[in-house]
Each structure stands twice: as structure tokens, then as C-alpha cells.
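Inputs:
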Amino acid sequence: MAKASTTGIRPTIRMVAELAGVSTATVSYVLSGRRGDGGPGVSDPTAEKVKAAAERLGYRPNQAARAIRTGRTNTVILSLTMLSDPWSLSVIEAVQRAAVPLGITPMILGDADWVKVLGTHNADAVFVDAVRPDQRDALRQLAEHGTTLVVFDEEVKAEGFDVIRSIAGPGCRMAVEHLLHGHARIACLTPATAAGTSGGTRYRAYSEALADAGIPERDDYVGLFDGTSAGAYAAATRLLSLPDRPTAIYATTDYAAVSAINAAQRLGLAVGTDVDIIGVGNTVEGERMSPSLSTVGPVDFFDKLARVLLRRATGPAGTAATEQPGVLDFPWHLFVRESAPHRSAATRLY
Amino acid sequence: MAKASTTGIRPTIRMVAELAGVSTATVSYVLSGRRGDGGPGVSDPTAEKVKAAAERLGYRPNQAARAIRTGRTNTVILSLTMLSDPWSLSVIEAVQRAAVPLGITPMILGDADWVKVLGTHNADAVFVDAVRPDQRDALRQLAEHGTTLVVFDEEVKAEGFDVIRSIAGPGCRMAVEHLLHGHARIACLTPATAAGTSGGTRYRAYSEALADAGIPERDDYVGLFDGTSAGAYAAATRLLSLPDRPTAIYATTDYAAVSAINAAQRLGLAVGTDVDIIGVGNTVEGERMSPSLSTVGPVDFFDKLARVLLRRATGPAGTAATEQPGVLDFPWHLFVRESAPHRSAATRLY
DNA sequence: CTGTTAGCGCGTTCAT
DNA sequence: ATGAACGCGCTAACAG
């Protein structure tokens, strides 16, 4: 009874070949191979027969089987640790835009535990968004064993894989120094987990800039939160409710800054007048909101990131081919917008 | 010169076998096969040799090759169209929690275009979070051809795959009717794209509840936005700035409701007093924020969803085995919290 | 009881 | 346009 087509079984290239009355090789060539387009071709009538058969069976080539032979999966993996962070969404969008026209599918790995996964799952290239110190060895091993990596990290060395750095230090200094032009009571809003990671740099910029300006750092002006927007909101509310409240907040991420702006407004404070708020990262959200968010960050970051990743993904398999992998640095700029405008002598808050 | 180990080449089971001086079969049995555990075993010394060799080469089994033979990828795909929506994050978290202990990796597909991808990439199970009408045929075809699907949709029939519905209609009615107890001027905040999809149901509940209450629907009380939080914020601001401003807002998603609360506060309105706001979805964010968000939604939704998905993923390959796929309905509840409290006769706003 | 041989399942690709 | 080998890991059947 059960003839074919809807057996619940996935059609294979052999079924297509049989139905079309040709060999599997021919099917392969017609559907994806080098022939049939312009090369020493498959005859038109045959190609038609094959296409019709494939269509009728609903045939889709099996990526896994293809990958095993070609070494290419037409897939890139994005390992993103903070999916709720708009930064991650920007990465996804940019990569999506660049990948889809190339027939490459971006897959997102939302687990911080990329080490196990990347060892077994193959992708043409992998973007890794954060590297804990204890993961560095694993990273180098992955690269040695043929995984094509693009790593976003400020400290890791490029050993067999590309590193994208966007040296936050100087940029963050610019942010704090911008506030120092008009303020003396400057608070810092930063995730508690940022102690060891890249966030540490961003917090250090605050400490050092204050020290260099001769302003003592106050414990109660450091608002730690759990990494969520809601947590940032709560921490900002705490800061702005202090009896001797800060007149400016330096937030180590844009999304925290956005939360801080919401918190300030809820407390009836005019952002950009009563209190200045600056973020870090230069995300679109900050630019579009009202009042627009002053921030520091790289320019054109996400598109360039996507370009690097896809160049690697479409290049020859295994890293370190054609172009030697290296470090790509992004210069940071200061974007002065409404939430922390330029302060003249007349508008200084001290 | 290049000997082995760090050739940039991924080690195969054959290399391990050679280094250990055994056959590939033995390696396979030791590393993952049925023997060596409790069954008729591999001798301890041999097993040790193999493990040492694998360790030394940094061998990781190739998922693609394994999948082609076993039909299992130890992977589930989550196709999520609105990654910025906290709802998606809740899905990811719940599935993550349930999958990792089982050795299954969740991969996220951020593209609305799941049709092409799911045909070629295999996973043990796939969760699809939204189905456009023009995708329904493709959905049935995928299921027919062996893809194990769990679909979240209110309208699609369960034809060869599981459907999770969480019948929004009655729940949304409850939300609007809750507002009707204390208000006459009720606005609706909803994404513009919700016209044809499940959001349509949520909007319809508003129209119908108003009609049944004998309150004419006003065009200027329908705030359409682009689906982003920022867009929702802007639309809410518009609604609340009307000369004859609404005293209550029914938002068709929780995140839109959160934006509306922020917007109201920015305008100096006390939420829960001057204006009531209710959402849809019952997300954790809403529960935790301040003021806490009144909402309607299912109970324990995400964990149950994850359980269904993983039961399918770990069950026999191909859908419709063991248990016939079916429809899983979620009952909705009304959660009355601070942003839209109970209104007595004394506190009515009309 | 331990280990090996051989063949499978896919799509690709080189000779013929 | 084709037959057959190939790449990878799995596993039934077999040999010691």
C-alpha cells in the first residue's frame, strides 16, 4: 500500500534518482553540483526530469551527509552569552543580513558552555562572544583541530583564530572624562559579574579617570546589578535616591544606561539637565530613544564583524588558510547626545 | 615534518584507533557504544589505551557523521521569530534547563524563514514559534518527511506534529473585562503586524469586549507600533498624550505593557492610580518589575513546553511514533497585580 | 568474553 | 551520464 512520497521517511537522493530514471551522480550534479549550470552539462531534458522528481518527492539534501563529504555545513554558529543584551541582537541581525544572501544559515548557541558543543558540532565558522579565562585553552585546542573561530575578546591572543577587539579602555575613559567636564559626583552602574571579564576594563576606566581627576571613589556610588535590565533599573533607582545623589551616571553598557534613564525619569529627574547619563557600546536602541543616549563605542562594528566572520566561513576550510588570522581593532568614538550633553561653564553641576 | 596532533586537521576515529593500536570498532564502543559500560565489555586496559589516545589527539566525535548513521543529532532547534521578545528568552531558558542534562543542545534559529532551513538541517525535534498562513503547507510537508515538530500556534491543526495552543481569546477577554470594571476609556496597544497572526486574536478580544459592553471603539485609542520596545513606548506616549486620554491600556504583549508603564511614568502618571495597564503573556519580567504588571497568561507554560519538546526529541525518530501527536491546550489565568488593581465602586475612573 | 571485519547510511566526486 | 569509491562513525555478525 504505502507507495512512497508520504511514508514519513525522508526522501534520499537515491529515491529521486530512481524516480527520474537516472543515477544518483546525475541527481547530485543537477541539484547542487558543479555541472548543469554552465560546465560540461547535464542535458536539459534530464535536468528537468530530475528537478521534477525531486519536487514531487519533496526532496531536500541532507546537510549532515553533505557536510561529511565536503567539510562545509553552510552554517555559522553564533555563541552568545547574553541573549537579552541588545548587543547580541545587533550581532544576530548583522550576521543574518550578510549570511542569508550567501546561502549560509546562522545558528545561535545561547549557552555559555560553548566548549563542549563546538567540539562536536561543525560549522563553517563560529563567533564566540566572551571567553572566560578557564576557557582559553579549550579555545586554542578547538582552533588547532580545525574549527574556524572568530572571537570577541579584549585580552585573548590570536593563536590560530581571529580576534576582534574593540579596546574599551580608552573609549570608556572618554566617556567618564566627558562627564568630568561638568560633574564631580559621578556614579557607576555596572553588572556584578563584570569583575573578571571585559566589563572589568569598563569599570577600571571609571576608577582610574576619577583617580586622575583627584576625585575619591565612593562605595555608595557604585551600583552593582545582576545583569538584567530590571536589575539595572533597581540599582539606578538606588543611586538616584541617595541623599547626596550623583549628578551623573556612567553605565558600563548601553542597556543599563537605558534602564538608568527610565529610573531617573520615574524619579522625576530631567535627564540631560538634572542628571547626565552616558552608556557604553553605541547600540541603535540608545540612538533612537528619547532622550537619545550619549555613549561611546565603535563605528560600524556589527557589519564589519559579520564581514570578517563570513569571509572566514566562505574561505577554505580549516583556519589559517589564505589569510593568516589576526587581531582586528576597532577605534572608539564618543557620541554626545541628549542624555549627557556638552556642559559649558554655565551649566556645570558643581 | 608535520606528524599529527596539531595539523589543523580534525582527528577521526581512525586516528585514535591507530594510535591506540586497536580497531575503529573498539574505539567506537569505548567512546560511545553500548559495550564498555555494563554490557559485554571491552577490557579495562584496552579501554584505557583508547581513552588516552582520544585525549591526546583531542578527539571529538563528529556529530554529522554520527547523525547520518543513527538519525539522531542530539540537537533541538528553536525557531524563534521575535528574539527581542522576553517570551523567546523564557522559551530558551526553559528548554536549556531541560535539554542540557539529557546531553541535548538547543540551537536557536533567529530567522523567520525556517522553511528552507528545517528541510535540510536535521534536529531531533524542532520548536516553531509562529506560522504564517502561507507556511502551513510547508509545515505539513516537513512533518510528512520525518521532521519532528512542536508548533506554537492557535489556529493550525495538528497534522503529524504537536501543536501547543494557549488559546489567548478567552484570556484576553478576561484582561479587557478586568479593565472594564473600572474604566470606560480603554486603549489598546498592539503590534501592527499582528493583523493576521495570533496577535489578531488578542486585538479581537479587545474589540469584542468593548462591543459587548456597549462602548464604541475609537480609532485614536488603538496604538499600533512596529514590534519593538521603543516603538511600543512611543505609541503608548501618543495614547497617553491625547487630550481625552484613556484611563486604561490593554497591551497585547507584556513587553509592550512594560514599555507603556515606562511611558506613563515619564509623563508623570501614576500607574495603578491615574492609569491602569494590563499585559498579555504572564512573563517573569512583568511579575518582578515595579509596579508589578497585571497580566493574563498560562501557568507554568515554558516548562511544560520544554517537556513536550524534549519528550519528542528523545523518543524514536520520525514523528507520530509511540504517542500520537496532538494538541496541548493551556488554560489562562488572570493575574491582578499593581499596574491594574481591582477597582471598587469608589475608585472607578468613570 | 574480547576484539575485528565488513558494510551501512548519505551526498559528493573521480575515473570510466 | 554513470559506477564506484570516499568521508565519517556506528553496529551486526563473526573469529579468536
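The longest strand of chain B covers residues 186-191. Flag for discussion at group meeting.
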